[in-house]
C-alpha cells in the first residue's frame, strides 16, 4: 500500500477507528513531527482533541539515523537490545545522547505547548499515532511511558510498520490498527508518494487547526 501523503494515511486510519468517535474520555496523542499530520486528520474525523507526546530517538554514535533507543518526555528510556549489542559505546557517549535528547524535548515542550505540562492521561482512552514505524524505538518508548500514566485504554494507530513489530505492539496495547505491514520493509518514506519533512511551524498549524475545529 502506498499513501499519497500523511493526510490521506490519517483519513484511512480514522475509518478503522470509528468505534472511538466522540468517546468522551478519548484523546489523540501524536508523535511530532510527522505524526501530528496523521493526528490532525483523526481529530477531525473522530471529533477528539489532539495533543502531542514528545519522544526523542537516541541515534547510534556515528550513525544517528539508526535508533538504539528513545527517551520520552516523562523520562522513560527504551533501548533496542539488538542495536545496543551491535553498537559498542561508552557510558559517556550514552549520557551525551540522552542529554541532547532531553534538551530537544524541552525545546519542543516550550514551543508546542508554551511550556505547559502533558495533558491528563489517567482514566482516558488514548490513541497514539505516528506516520510510520521503522525500528520502533520511539513508539515503544512512548507506549511504555503512557502505560505508566494509567490510561483506561491504549490504542496504537500507525499507517505502516514492519511485520516483525506487530506481535510486540499487540502485547503493549488494548487495540492496534496498522494499515500496511510490507515485506520486506525498507523505510517509512518508501510507502508515501509525498513524504516531505514536517517543520515546527506546520506542527503548530495542525495543533491550532484541530483546536479551532473542536471549538467550532
Word description of this protein:
With 216 residues, the protein is α/β, with parallel strands linked by helices. It has two domains: 6-55 and 118-215, Rossmann fold, CATH 3.40.50; 57-112, Ybab, Chain: A, CATH 3.30.1310. Helix content is 40%, strand content 21%. It contains seven helices and eight strands; from the N terminus they run αβαββββααβαβαβα. It has helices spanning 6-16, 34-46, 81-86, 91-113, 137-147, 166-172, 200-215, and strands at 26-30, 50-52, 55-60, 63-72, 77-79, 125-129, 153-160, 175-180. A five-stranded parallel beta sheet has the order 2-1-6-7-8, with helices on both faces. The protein has a three-stranded antiparallel beta sheet with strand order 3-4-5. Helix 1 (6-16) packs across helix 2 (34-46) and helix 2 (34-46) packs parallel to helix 7. The longest helix is centred in the middle third of the chain and has 23 residues, at 91-113. The chain is globular and about 50 Å long. The mean pLDDT is 93.
Amino acid at each position: 500500500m502506498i499513501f499519497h501523503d500523511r493526510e490521506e494515511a490519517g483519513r484511512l486510519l480514522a475509518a478503522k477507528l470509528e468505534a472511538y468517535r466522540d468517546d468522551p474520555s478519548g484523546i489523540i496523542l501524536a508523535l511530532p513531527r510527522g505524526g501530528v499530520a496523521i493526528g490532525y486528520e483523526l481529530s477531525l474525523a473522530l471529533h477528539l482533541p489532539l495533543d502531542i507526546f514528545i519522544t526523542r530517538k537516541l541515534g547510534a554514535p556515528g550513525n544517528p539515523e539508526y535508533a538504539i533507543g528513545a527517551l520520552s518526555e516523562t523520562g522513560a528510556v527504551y533501548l533496542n537490545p539488538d542495536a545496543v549489542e551491535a553498537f559498542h559505546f561508552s557510558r559517556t557517549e550514552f549520557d551525551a545522547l540522552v542529554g541532547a535528547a532531553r534538551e530537544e524535548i524541552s525545546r519542543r515542550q516550550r514551543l508546542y505547548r508554551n511550556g505547559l505540562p502533558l495533558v491528563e492521561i489517567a482514566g482516558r482512552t488514548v490513541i497514539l499515532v505516528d506516520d510510520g514505524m521503522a525500528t520502533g524505538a520511539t513508539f515503544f518508548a512512548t507506549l511504555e511511558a503512557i502505560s505508566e500514566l494509567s490510561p483506561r485504554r491504549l490504542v496504537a494507530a500507525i499507517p505502516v510498520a514492519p511485520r516483525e513489530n506487530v506481535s510486540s505492539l499487540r502485547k503493549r496495547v488494548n487495540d492496534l490498527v496498522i494499515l500496511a505491514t510490507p515485506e520486506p520493509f525498507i523505510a517509512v518514506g518508501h510507502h508515501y508518494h509525498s513524504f516531505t519533512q514536517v517543520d515546527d511551524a506546520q506542527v503548530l498549524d495542525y495543533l491550532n487547526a484541530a483546536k479551532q475545529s473542536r471549538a467550532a
